[in-house]
Specification:
The protein has about 775 residues and is α+β, with helices and mostly antiparallel strands. Helix content is about 15%, strand content about 30%. The protein is built from 11 helices and 39 strands. The strands form 8 sheets. Strands 1-2-3-4-11-10-9-8-12-7 form a 10-stranded antiparallel beta sheet, sandwiched between helices. It starts with a helix and ends with a strand.
Length: about 775
């Protein structure tokens, strides 16, 4: 208020004209003359359709006049200290919006209303420019516009032409794919209309998902996902106006909504537009329109940019918008209401005033030309919360491809590649393809859709570079083709060496997200330096599913398959709603990842290794960022028995992190025992105990109950190699024998006790 007072004093000291309340008759005269001058209508018939009033004083704030025969409307200020014309159109008519409808237009007009009331309350005078405009329109004289723009490309400035012809809405039909009867949201509708304008892309890119549940979202709609790369957008099947069910339009609006992590609700769905606004919001991984246009819909990353009106002078802001429109690029415009949040719509034209054409995304209701500047150059700026996403255009060419089949349990594998690259228009077709196939035969190709054979096991990258008359683009998919060569167990992976992932392992990361399985510290039980972890604490997105796959193993000689690993985890807060905790799921596949079978799932305190306590309640050790960091005693070894894969020739495993905004999850020492068949067939008996376990290699074997009088003891490592042998004689119930292993590496060892009547197997961990 101090700033307002000081600036007001300056203005009052200037020799400017004092404001007068405008009567309905004068307002109608101004509207009539303005319409006649701009639309070549010598005698338009205007009638008053609505008067907006000050809720305190009851005085008129602005008037709306409809033009005869559904030929548009003109909105006129009721205070001559403000710009006379607030908005207009030469099509349709005005009916005051019903509560809860067309929130973008309502926001805009509420901003204008507050501005006029502030002008009146502050007793601001009219500037000479504003006075001249009122005088000119009152006397039917074409005003001398102080703003002049150059006509570029023959389209602008114009009082009638604008870029986007679609008149879409948020419901009905548009929201047929949205959960729970939710509307699409203004972010989705604006994005969809701009993509419709470009008839681009022909399909999306990648995949994304998020968990739409309270408290971060209004409603519990569960996991929402979209496979953009399988969404083929048939633009010819999407009409300018949707008056009946249209699956293609509904799918486009849903894909746009999921891509921005839409907070769906039947009364109004919301998300972010600019990247900087999304940082710190509850939507996943700074999800916003600016990012989604590029990441999931293939728009030009080199041109798209978020701008803030507060960083520009009025003339510079208008010039910025005009330049975009001169280049035939629609703008996704944003207005922020400090109380009710943000709104976004399409800005797609301008005239010489300059007023800008706004498509509010509400079935063309109130679409028209509106000023983006203040209605009075006074000591406040009601447009300071305006933003614009500019540079939204297709790239010169966008490289993309698909292939099938992508996996095989053995070589050779022949893969058929399909070019799915995109162009901005048929006028610039792709003229060249350059494929690079690491490990493939042939290793390169210039065909559009080649077939390549892989003769050796491995995980292979594929690169495609394409060229057209406008430029070139390339895309590389790492570990895209996987040819297996099943190894015979054992597996003993301690993740001690780089590079990560280990040979034959690979990480599957959702491309929308910042977190994935990665290499780090500490190792299991503190016995080694490294492990793998998933950072649910700092970067994990609610509802994110990411996997790391093992190599393929041959279990034809394994009678009793099992998998065991070390795990360390603490949830953040299990008492919150929903709990801030994560889940670890383990699967196996016998067809090289084409399908998966779940064999393990633990989450929250069941997965926790901190004595049943979470981080918030002080039950877990954390690092400087407050993320779980395990102590040596914060580890547990989990064993999974998998009889279903006994004898299977090709088996791979997947460790899947399901993020619930919990904390960091650690895994180490993944083992698949590869014991000789006679060891696997040995029986487990309660009468034999091994202690201490874990040990330093020196331990004891105790016998109780009925036993044989001798046993042959053989110790094997996880590679199935014998590391020691010892004969135990005169064994009776109650006998205890000391075993001192030679210097061996840390890990898990199998003890085989056998004689001519039985075999017994035990395990011991050496630290």
């Amino acid at each position: 208020m101090k700033t307002f007072t000081c600036l007001l004093a300056i203005l009052l000291g200037a020799n400017q004209l004092q404001a007068v309340v405008v009567s309905p008759a004068l307002a109608q005269k101004v509207a009539t003359n303005f319409y006649a001058q701009n639309f070549s209508a010598p005698q338009p018939d205007l009638t008053i359709a609505y008067t907006e009033r000050d809720p305190v004083s009851g005085a008129a704030v602005y008037y709306v006049f409809n033009v005869d025969r559904n030929r548009g409307f003109v909105i006129v200020s009721a205070d001559d200290a403000a710009m006379p014309i607030i908005g207009y159109n030469d099509k349709g008519s005005y009916t005051n919006p019903a509560p809860g409808t067309n929130t973008n237009f309502v926001y805009w007009m509420q901003e204008r209303k507050q501005e006029i009331i502030a002008i009146r309350n502050q007793n601001l005078p009219a500037s000479s420019e504003i006075h001249d405009l009122w005088t000119s329109y009152s006397n039917n004289v074409v005003p001398n516009n102080t703003h002049r723009v150059s006509r570029v490309m023959g389209s602008f400035p114009s009082n009638t032409f604008h870029l986007v012809n679609s008149i879409w809405n948020q419901s009905p039909y548009y929201n047929a794919w949205c959960p729970g009867g939710s509307v699409t949201g203004c972010v989705s509708t604006a994005m969809s209309q701009i993509m419709w304008y470009w008839s681009y892309p022909s399909h999306g890119l990648f995949h994304s998902a998020y968990l739409c549940i309270p408290p971060f979202y209004k409603n519990n709609y569960g996991l929402l996902s979209a496979d953009y790369d399988t969404s083929n957008y048939n633009w010819a099947a999407m009409p300018r106006e949707v008056n009946s069910p249209n699956n293609m339009v509904a799918k486009l609006c849903y894909d746009a909504g999921v891509s921005v992590g839409m907070d769906y609700d039947p009364s109004g769905s919301g998300s972010e537009v600019l990247t900087n606004d999304a940082i710190g919001a509850h939507w996943p991984d700074t999800a916003c329109a600016q990012r989604s246009y590029v990441k999931f819909f293939g728009f030009n990353a080199a041109t798209i940019s978020g701008k803030y009106q507060s960083s520009y002078s009025l003339s510079s802001w208008e010039s910025l918008l005009e330049n975009e429109l001169n280049n035939n690029r629609p703008i996704q415009y944003v207005g922020t209401d400090p109380v009710n949040g943000g709104h976004t719509w399409v800005c797609d034209g301008y005239n010489s005033t300059p007023d800008f054409h706004m498509n509010w995304g509400w079935d063309s209701a109130y679409d028209g030309w509106y000023s983006v500047s203040s209605l009075n150059p006074g000591p406040f700026n009601f447009s300071q919360n305006h933003e614009a996403l500019i540079g939204i255009e297709p790239p010169p060419v966008k490289a993309w491809f698909t292939a099938s089949p992508l996996t095989s349990c053995s070589a050779p594998l022949t893969v058929n590649f399909t070019d799915k690259s995109m162009i901005p228009s048929p006028a610039s077709p792709i003229t060249g393809w350059k494929w690079t196939f690491t490990g493939g035969s042939p290793s390169s190709s210039n065909l559009q859709n080649p077939s390549i054979t892989y003769n050796s096991p491995g995980s292979y990258s594929v690169k495609l570079k394409i060229t057209n008359s406008l430029g070139s683009d390339s895309v590389t998919f790492a570990n895209y083709v996987v040819v297996g060569s099943p190894s015979v167990p054992p597996l003993a992976q301690g993740f001690e060496s780089q590079p990560f992932a280990p040979s034959g392992w690979y990480v599957v990361n959702n491309p929308n997200l910042l977190a994935w399985w990665s290499w780090g510290t500490p190792g299991g039980y503190g016995s080694s330096a490294h492990s793998i972890h998933f950072d649910n604490c700092a970067n994990g997105m609610l509802g994110e599913y990411d996997q790391i796959y093992t190599p393929i193993y041959n279990f034809t000689s394994i009678a009793k398959p099992e998998l065991y690993f070390d795990v360390a985890y603490a949830p953040y807060d299990v008492s919150s709603s929903p709990p801030e905790s994560d889940t670890l799921v383990v699967y196996y596949s016998t067809n090289c990842g084409a399908s998966w079978n779940q064999i393990y799932s633990k989450g929250g305190l069941t997965l926790a290794t901190t004595g049943g306590k979470d981080i918030k309640n002080g039950g877990a050790h954390t690092d400087a960022q407050g993320c779980f960091y395990p102590l040596n005693n914060n580890w547990r070894t989990d064993t999974i028995h998998i009889p279903a894969i006994a004898g299977a020739p090709a088996v791979m495993f997947s460790f899947e992190n399901r993020s619930g905004n919990g904390s960091t999850l650690f895994i180490d020492n993944v083992n698949i025992p590869g014991l000789p068949l006679n060891v696997a067939d040995a029986v487990e008996q309660r009468e034999v105990t091994v202690y201490p376990n874990p040990s330093n290699g020196n331990f004891r074997i105790g016998f109780s109950g009925q036993t044989e009088n001798w046993y042959d003891l053989t110790v094997y490592n996880m590679l199935g190699q014998q590391v020691m042998h010892q004969l135990l004689q005169n064994v009776t119930g109650g006998s205890v024998y000391s075993v001192n292993m030679p210097a061996v590496a840390k890990g898990v060892y199998s003890l085989l006790l056998k004689n001519d009547r039985e075999q017994i197997v035990k395990q011991i961990t050496v630290l």
